[in-house]
Amino acid sequence: MGTSSDDGGVTSRPRAESWRPPASVVPLIDSHCHLDQDAFTDDRDAVLARARAAGVGRMITVGSGGPLASNRAAVAIAERDPDVFAAVAVHPHDAREVTDDTWDELRRLWKHPKVVAVGETGLDYYYEHSPADVQQRHLRRFVREAGRVGLPLVIHCRDAFPDLLRILAEEDAGSVGGVIHCFSGTPAEAEACLALGFALSFSGIVTFKTADRLREVVRLVPRDRILVETDAPFLAPLPHRGKRNEPALVRQVVEEVARVRALDVSEAARLTVANTERTFRLPPAR
After folding, report:
1. How many domains does the chain have?
2. Cα separation, 283 vs 286, whole angstroms
3. pLDDT tens-digit map of 142-174
4. What Cα–Cα distance (Å) separates residue 273 from each residue in 27, 29, 85, 122, 142?
5. pLDDT digits (tens, 9 = 90+) for 200-238
6. pLDDT in the model for residue 180
7. Does residue 285 belong to any structural domain of this protein?
8. What CATH number does the domain containing 47 carry?
């Protein structure tokens, strides 16, 4: 889920009639969204249709709202749609709710053929809904479990990079691999994550007028480590900021990455699709 102070800004949803396929549709992937969220209950099928119309051929929906319910819902959505995959874990907000039964169920879900990652896990000291020591203990275990089941990690971090980097290094998380989702840290923090072997994923935050430092990070990340995401329904990019986000809007993120990197949009799309496929070991597109 979103790492900005604006991550709760889901105030309204775009009207279906306002959506049109872009003039030039290029294949895209939304590497991180939350299709199970209540914000999509009334029009989830329409949201998926708009994504495809915008060129978003595949999506990774991430279970994170509570220990198990959101994970089960994410896997169920992925089961129903050949173009949707799931990531399964427990968000650091909910770390204190994890029990032995939670781990048993997660291990079962990680075996599902549509589950492509362990996530999102990590540390969040901004809200600290769960105590920091509990978050750290479970993050260590998630890294170990991801190595055991052979899946990459999806890492959430907010106001916790020193502890995150220390734990990832101590647990040899680089040998597991994965992505720091919705990256919003400093260039130095980005360099440290890259040195550990992680990719960085950028969300709608990169389009915000105040995001000059983040755009600096986009410039320094190697071409083969850039992913894009919506984190929908959170963090809608400009000009939709403050409204409900959805996977179709990952195009705005790709366009901003292309602008910052001085690339054609089609080239930025090709890069981010290839990087997502490699990071999550996705099967070839249909």
Report:
1. 1
2. 9
3. 999 999 999 999 999 999 999 999 999 999 999
4. 8, 6, 14, 24, 26
5. 999 999 999 999 999 999 999 999 999 999 999 999 999
6. 98
7. no
8. 3.20.20.140
Checking phi first, is residue 69 left (phi over 0); if not, alpha (psi -120 to 50) or beta? Answer: alpha
- Peptide linkage before 267 cis (omega within 30 of 0): no
The domain in which residue 233 lies consists of 24-280
Residue 17 lies in a domain: no
Please check whether residue 121 lies inside any domain of the structure. yes
Going by C-beta distance under 8 Å and a sequence separation of 6 or more, which residues neighbour residue 46? 16
3-state secondary structure the chain: CCCCCCCCCCCCCCCHHHCCCCCCCCCEEEEEECCCCHHHCCCHHHHHHHHHHCCEEEEEEEECCCCCHHHHHHHHHHHHCCCEEEEECCCHHHHHHCCHHHHHHHHHHHCCCCEEEEEEEEEECCCCCCCHHHHHHHHHHHHHHHHHHCCCEEEEEECCHHHHHHHHHHCCHHHCCEEECCCCCCHHHHHHHHHCCCEEEECHHHHCCCCHHHHHHHHHCCHHHEEECCCCCCCCCCCCCCCCCCHHHHHHHHHHHHHHHCCCHHHHHHHHHHHHHHHHCCCCCC
Would residue 71 count as lying in a domain?
yes
CB 286 within 8 Å of CB 257:
no
Q: What is the pLDDT of residue 11?
A: 41
Average pLDDT value for residue range 266-278: 98
Place of tokens 């209540």: 38
Please provide residue 56's backbone torsions phi and psi, each rounded to the nearest 5 degrees: -80, 95
